[in-house]
Design a protein that fits this description.
The structure holds two protein chains of two kinds. Chain A is an all-alpha fold. Helix content of chain A is about 75%, strand content about 0%. Chain A is built from 14 helices and no strands. In chain A, helix 10 packs parallel to helix 14. In chain B, about 35% of the residues lie in helices and about 30% in strands. Chain B is globular and about 70 Å long. In chain B, about 45% of the residues are buried. Classes of the chains: A mainly alpha, B alpha/beta. The interface between A and B is large, with 33 and 39 residues.
Chain lengths: ~325, ~325
Amino acid sequence: MEQPRARTPSAAALLALEARRLLGKKSYIVLVALGVAAPLLVSLLIRGPVHKLLQQAHLPHQVLSTAWLAFLGSSRALGGLLNAGAFSALGLAAVSLTSYSWIIAVVFAALIVAGDIVEGRLQLLVVRPVTRRRLLAVKIAALTVSLALLFTVSAAAVYVSATILFGSQAKPWLMPVYGAVLAAALIPLEAATMIIALKLRRSGVTMLLGILLYIVGSMISALPMVQFIRSLGAGAGGEAAKQALRAMMYLNVAEPLHGGPNLAKTLLDAVIAGLHAQATMPGFNINLGVNYAMLLAVGAASLAAASLVLYAVASLVFSRQTL
Amino acid sequence: MGDVVLSVRGLVKRYGRVYGVRRVDLTVRRGVHGLVGPNGAGKTTTMKCIVGLAFPDAGEAVFLGESLWGPRGWGLRSLIGYVAEVPDVSYHGTAEELLWELAVAEGYSLGEARAAARRAAEEAGIEDLLGRPVRGMSKGQRKRLLYAQAMLSPRELYVLDEPFSGLDPEAVVWARELVARLGRSSAVLVSSHLLRELEDLAERVTVILRGETVYEGPVRELVEKTVGVVAVFKVSDPEAAGRILRDAGAARLRVLPGAVEAVLKSEDEIALVVEKLVAAGLKVYGVEKTRGLEEAYLSLLGAGEGGAGGGAA
């Protein structure tokens, strides 16, 4: 008979375990199918009219070759002729799954923690030779890998769709880079959602509160707009208004709960326009003295710091919890 | 002390202002060790602290000479198997998938984990249920699944919380034999309200009342200390046997058809009484010991004035 001996799992084995579990979820498979099918279907449906319009517009191919990045939310794509807002209005960006990245992140973060507790799986995992801190880290890593894959596939579908509509597209290497950055930038929101999931142990309520967190983050990012309007109202204009807009621009990428998707879009803009190009704010044709390199650096630093802090808080909550 | 597998000293666990456990001391040796107490006394909380489902507020646990609640204690958990009282598992997937996942989390390679899952399922008698979705399983089948996950690896200690609850009579027989078998090579800590089952299995017992250990030691010693040994002598002349037992100092005599029941001070007295009965010319057809642990437990419970519940801090 085999003698008892202490074993511990490797981080890679645990990561494979959690990622496999996530990738096998029906909801994940449905999202992948939707992320591929929706843009392709829409592009096939509107291919004829779009081709006619393009013949009349005589746009250079160089401009059209960045159309797929507009689908993903870049305001600098298509030579800035159509910004992300306009594309959303046409319903093209809306068919890209990446537009809903934050909701997807909240839903899966709730499922892999609260769902696991409800299923009794987490209770069976924590009695194994693995620390809760490591288990949580593995869950976040597996979620990031799975979302990066989902967003990359979705970006690839967008790339193919844009090729069908606008001809060959540039910078295909951005697909996995964008997917990975978007997934990584959502870690603070996921970690915050996981804290709620650990406390409430119910997926549905956790998802609602996670969505609320994002909305609150969004509102915080918009706070400088109050200052902007007040400065205009007071006739201050000039530098005070610019400062408010600048603050809003930074908060848009650096606010931890809501900035993730914006950081990924800023990366696309930076790739198109160049790292040292002046960042623009849709609707405002003002030079704010902020370039993409600065925005990316501040956004990345803020989201990385928030990821670490929120992970530490989630670990603390988890480590004291009776299951 | 050489066969001590787990030693818990001064365990305290609070849930907010309420004590789950006030002070539990526990020494588990190889063999089967019973953990008894009324509902809410702290048995499940104690077990959860041992296996890592709950974190103690105070106390220390030494498992195989190493600190179980210290910074490296988690690494010892592959040597502990745990079966929860309620098979609250509604896993999305098959039994085989769940066992495979848990084997990987226990340190098996992805390939070895498949074999470990099959082996554990065979030991738990659920090999034909491996392909079944866990959600579609009955309560009894899920309880067996819990047994299977506890046996994914050979263990030094098994922690079984009410191992017979939720099982049908046939499965109870199976579980009883399994506990006895596991107890021959490992330490098995069993909490159960079925004291007659436990009395047959456990050599030692810990009694917890109101979150505190009130007794720990051999089952036999507890029974003898509190109520004595209740024995039924099947004899040819119960009336005559009754007189002999009274003269021998036995208490609470009861003459039954073809037998006489008496409470003796210790098990050693049984042999002496049998000798006297035989010497008096009576035929002794058999001797049965009954209700020892149950009576002893109820006696302790009476002394502890109910004993249930943790109480506020």
